[in-house]
Amino acid sequence: MAKVDLVKVGKNLLKSGETGKSVELLSLWQDQPVVLFFLRRFGCQVCRWMATEISKLEPDLRANGVALVGVGPEEFGLKEFKEGGFFKGPVYVDEHKKSYKDLGFKRYTALSLVPAALGKKVRDAASKASAEGIQGNFSGDLLQSGGMLIVAKGGEKVLVHFIQDSPGDHLALEDICKALGISANAKAGQMPVCNDDVCTR
Fold first, then answer.
1. CB-CB neighbours of 191 under 10 Å
2. 152 CB contacts (<8 Å, ≥6 apart)?
3. Please, are residues 48 and 129 in contact by the beta-carbon 8 Å criterion?
4. SS3 of residue 79 by DSSP
5. What is the arithmetic mean of pLDDT over 179-193?
6. pLDDT band at residue 135 using 50, 70 and 90 as cut-offs
7. Would you state the pLDDT for residue 184?
8. What values do phi and psi take at 162, rounded to 5?
9. What letters, b where the CB count within 10 A reaches 16 and e where it falls short, cover 40-75?
10. What are the subcellular locations of this protein (predicted)?
């Protein structure tokens, strides 16, 4: 994994999902550490489940002065994502996907997406989402992957640079807390049994 150039990445503009105003990415870590969750897309069922999982940490992050921020690669699906209450933090859009590119979040090809989307990690995460009543759709950019960036206050250093290898990859809640040196009361969701009903669609 290449070293993250926070100065370069920090200059990228994100559009606020609340106000529509643009901010530099670096403004999000200027005054506090930040957990930046880069979603594949707002309509993705697995991404929605991951957003709800990460959001379990929000009270503990806030109590420790850490911001939790979501970033999507396009505005498509944002309204439904916000209305669904999947994420407990501010949400931004990287309209030009510049941060995604600079952070090495890959784009699938039509040929590589199918095996990745049918992999065990995706099936397992999708079954967790279904078990919790989280639905998704196939609208928007299906080819973008995501990940996570955790940055120390003031951009002092990168604590975590996580790149999804498959659409179902995600950091465990305890790994996020460990990187920040905090403890949390949140418990990760239990993995439901993967059966033909949820794992073959």
1. 11
2. 29, 33, 158, 159
3. yes
4. helix
5. 71
6. low
7. 79
8. -110, 125
9. bbbbbbbbbbbbbbbbbbbebbeebebbbbbbbbbe
10. Cytoplasm, Cytosol
Question: How far from chain centre, in Å, is Cα 165?
Answer: 13
Residue 98 CB partners (closer than 8 Å, separation 6+)? 12, 13
At residue 79, the pLDDT reads 93
3-state DSSP assignment of residue 24:
strand
Residues in contact with 93: Cβ distance below 8 Å, sequence separation at least 6, in sequence order: 14, 15, 17, 71, 72, 73, 74, 75, 78
Cβ contact 131:192 at 8 Å:
yes
Could you tell me the pLDDT band of residue 191, with boundaries at 50, 70 and 90? very low
- Comparing CA positions, the residue from 17, 11, 55, 4 lying closest to residue 30 is 11
Q: Look-up: residue for tokens 């995600």? A: 170
Contact (CB, 8 A) for 84 and 48: yes
Number of residues that make up the chain: 201
SS3 58: helix
